[in-house]
Amino acid sequence: MKDFSYPVVVVGGGPAGMAAAISAKENGAEKVLVIERENRLGGILKQCIHAGFGLQYFGEELSGPEYAERFAVKAKEAGIEFMLDTTALEIREQTLVCVNTTGVLHINFGALVLAMGCRERTRANLVIPGSRAAGIYSAGTAQKLINIYGHKVGKEVVILGSGDIGMIMARRLTLGGAKVKAVVEIMPYLAGLARNKAQCLDDFDIPLLLSHTVVDITGVDRVESVTIAPVDENRKPIMEKAEVIDCDTILLSVGLIPENELTRSADVTLSGITKGAVVNQYKQTDKPYIFACGNVLHVNDLVDHVSHESEDAGKYAAMYAAGKLPTVDQIEVAPGEGVRYVCPQKASPADMPIDLYFRTAAPGRNTTLTVSDDNGVLITKKLLVTTPGTIEKMTIPADKAKNISGKIVVTAVHKEA
Amino acid sequence: MNKSDVLIIGAGAVGCALARELSKYNLSVTVVDKNDDVGGDASKSNSGLFSTSATMPVGTLECRLRTIAHSMIMNVCKELDVPVIECGSIAPILYPDQLETAKGLTERAFQNGVYDYEILPAKDILELEPTLNPEILGGIYSPRDRQANQFIFVSALAENAAENGVEFVLDCPVTGMDVKDGKIYAVHTPKGDFSATWVINAAGLHCDEISDMVGECDFKINPRKGEFYVFSHDTPVKVSHIISSVPSPKTRGVLVIPTVDNNMLVGPTADDVEDKTDVKTTSGGLASIKAQALNMVPGLRFEDTITQFVGVRAARTPEGYDIRFSEKVPGFIGISGVRSTGLTASIGIAFYVVHGMKEAGLELVRKEGWKRTRKGIVRFADATDAEKDALIAENPLYGKIVCRCEQVTEAEILQAINRPVGAKTMDAIKRRVRAGMGRCQGGFCGPTVIEILARELGIPEEEVRKRGSKAFMLDK
């Protein structure tokens, strides 16, 4: 076993990990190490060759690899150390156990930032019945096969789920010469961002079937067809209206799950809703030396949010490692009416702005978003349209954050559904 | 023409157990199978149980062979390095009328020599298995029911047989036979003709079709479909015993099974179907398993399932094991009616058949240097830090994790491909070393495994298959 020691260690060299590492270094951590299991930095952004990244963070539109490259260059300039082709296996107190082709590594840390990202939900998670033929892929896997490996996955495709990756892949497959026959969504509204529907489906005449689901898949070797049916208000398929679509490929874009198996080895408390760690405004978990950011914390809509959030995590991890992060009593931050979750789930009164990221529970128009504590309303915001596919951000200003007390509740009230 | 002393048709549990048993002697043995991998159809898609013959019909061949096999199987697994858990089983008694059935079953178990199959009061059962429905009236406890990794069991038998000289020809369906005057002159396959002094039909689900080719088929195989759920390692409520419904004559009903790999299995259904290749899961089947399982173990979290699958069992009409040395075609041995009990019984069947061949005049001369043992592929995930360091020092590819969910390294995948009777497809790799068998179901490692398989087999990536000869992963 080889032993190492760093004030701050980051797990994951994707957008979250790189932003956290740079920020930790800028905020005083003398040495910062990033562990990355692949042979290059960038994480999932490497395969996201489409544009649409960086509008908020850089004020310009970049592709995924370009966005990642900016952070990779900055990280190298900042003197961050990297271990590539290295997999983190387990957290044992303040030691991260990793492995690579040189052996098992024991990396001791002052603070650890978890930035492992997320994985895709599978067909089995949804219990979709039918054949288990070849040709059924999660959208992200198909994206990797096409954009990284240069393969083709199929000729005639049906996409289940209207998540962002699914819609982006609908366009990518069409541009690659495949025929995308439909995007099927069980909910009565879009799962991903509206702009992706416009740019990826509408512009290519790809039909979006809302309130529909897959009820059967056929094919002994390779997929031969998929049967879809509309669903009633209880999401039960109406079998009389079922329809068969011939296809050789099915992509699933049915949600992402934060990849927290490593986190579990440290016995960190996880949220049942976000499936990520429960954190405070410092992105600090209930194991005070462990921080989390990016999609391992909660699934984001835009990488720009991830970068901002992760910079916070890196900064506070560096402060913790230096013994400078205050420890105070924490109060609960909870979703109220119309809100699915809020991250962070805890906060403590402090003379600093507190960013709250949250998702609404259902789409609506003329929405009033309100953040209050036991003393009353802290901030409000009005929006013309809100959807669960979009992350909302509200910031409690420092002068109010000083005095928060009781419990913070975030609500979203729609005037129209 | 491929000529041998013995030709075994079918590389499932029975075919591979026979191959290993015959490999002890100076005989040339060939095994053919239509699939790309050993492990057959029913032999792979099942619950991996090594059960006692407690509830078997008394005195039947099935009961005898299973009793004999059950007493030998732990030793075979030790010789072949097959992981087994000795978890025991519990059949909770949920309704008063099941009490009578349970009493009848213990009587039968006694007659079958399974003396430790007992009815215990609810309190004792709940102490053994606290996850059970607290409303139970009692339960049957059977401490010697076991669970094994059935994929490794069958591939270990095959690997050991191959090391001892047995030839395996896969992707090789038998399409017909030349039979004249009570003799098989040729067994046809797309890979050429085979001939042998002895032809053994161990084709499981398809044994009726093979027996029909020699005009010996007076029975029918009825495919019986069984659907299963597989649970994630980290689901909060896990059973420590095999939980079964109080069995009925047709089936053991739904079971909740702890596995050697720490993935609970829940199933199966038992639906008679027409099509032997019908391996489609159904909403109805899965819903019925869920309801029955929750009745026994109310805390099960079905949202934690990582996959669902179907196994097709080879039920026979008329029922029962049938092992027949043909009189019309001397040298042809038909094995039929081997249902789910066959995973355990395979070891007994092998001895029984080889003994019959000896009785029929086959001279059995022990092979010099027969290798009794086989070492399994060492799993990185199960090793301690020091063991991992040692593995990596010897082979750095043990430090390269390919499947992150199950922590499977490239070194293990290469062994799965390059060992005797190695993996040629994605599913075959998954069964041997679990790459792609975890929570993301191959989403992350799939592209890398395609790359490794293509490289090792010397084929383009577009030729890599999920299984079989036509289930291509990519579009050409």
Short description:
The complex is a heterodimer of chains A (417) and B (476). Chain A is an alpha/beta fold and 417 residues long. Chain A folds into 3 domains: 1-119 and 256-327, FAD/NAD(P)-binding domain, CATH 3.50.50; 122-254, FAD/NAD(P)-binding domain (3-Layer(bba) Sandwich), CATH 3.50.50; 330-417, Immunoglobulin-like (Sandwich).
C-alpha-based Rg of chain A, rounded:
22 Å
Taken as a percent bin, the fraction of beta residues of chain B is: 15-25%
Name of the CATH homologous superfamily of the largest domain in chain A: FAD/NAD(P)-binding domain
Query: Mean of the pLDDT scores of chain A?
Result: 95
Count of DSSP-assigned helices of chain A: 9
**CATH architecture label name of the largest domain in chain B:** 3-Layer(bba) Sandwich
Q: What Rg of chain B, in angstroms, do the CA atoms define?
A: 22 Å
What is the percent of helical residues of chain B? 25-40%
Into which percentage range does the β-strand content of chain A fall?
35-45%
How many DSSP E strands of chain A?
Answer: 27
CATH class of the largest domain in chain A: Alpha Beta
> From the structure provided, what is the oligomeric state, counting identical versus distinct chains?
heterodimer
**Helical run tally of chain B:** 12
Question: CATH homologous superfamily of the largest domain in chain B - what is it?
Answer: FAD/NAD(P)-binding domain
CATH topology of the largest domain in chain B: FAD/NAD(P)-binding domain
Largest interface pair: A-B, 51 and 54 residues
Structural class of chain A: alpha/beta
Task: Return the CATH class of the largest domain in chain B.
Answer: Alpha Beta
Count of the domains of chain B: 3
Major sheet characteristics of chain B: 9 strands, mixed
Number of domains of chain A: 3
